[in-house]
């Protein structure tokens, strides 16, 4: 028994018989262009999803790195912190500045604001004048 079709449906299309070569070429080209467009769209979607996954992985690893730096600095005693030029109260700010500037919390002389250092004090060992 033949299947009933609802001819009032918007997507209903009468079956066509393509006998001419031009019509067959036209249908083949249309099919190729549809496939090419879908392939392009799928490629774009996959690249976008890859970018989202990459951003997520980067954010998670950066969070882990900052948490580890915070915990390592908090584990130091006050004398060690004084040796690197920060106090225990400054650790959250140093870690936050390292996140903003992309540096390591170990680069304290770079991450501390200039007003926190005395103008005469060198930022690190390389800034000290050589002995004559």
What does this structure look like?
The protein is mainly α. It has one domain. Helices cover 58% and strands 0% of the residues. It contains 4 helices and no strands. 7% of the residues are buried.
Fill in the keyword field for this structure.
132 residues, mainly alpha
Silhouette: rod-shaped
Biggest β-sheet strands, sense, barrel: none
The overall pLDDT average reads 77
Sketch the topology as an H/E string, one letter per element.
HHHH
Instruction: Give the low-confidence spans.
Output: none
Strand content: under 5%
**SSE class:** mainly alpha
Count of discrete alpha- or pi-helical segments spanning 4 or more residues: 4
The total tally of domains equals 1
Terminal CA distance reads: 107 Å
Can I get a quick summary?
With 132 residues, the protein is mainly α.
Detail the topology: elements first, then pairings.
Blueprint (H helix, E strand, L loop, with lengths): L20 H55 L2 H7 L6 H11 L6 H4 L21
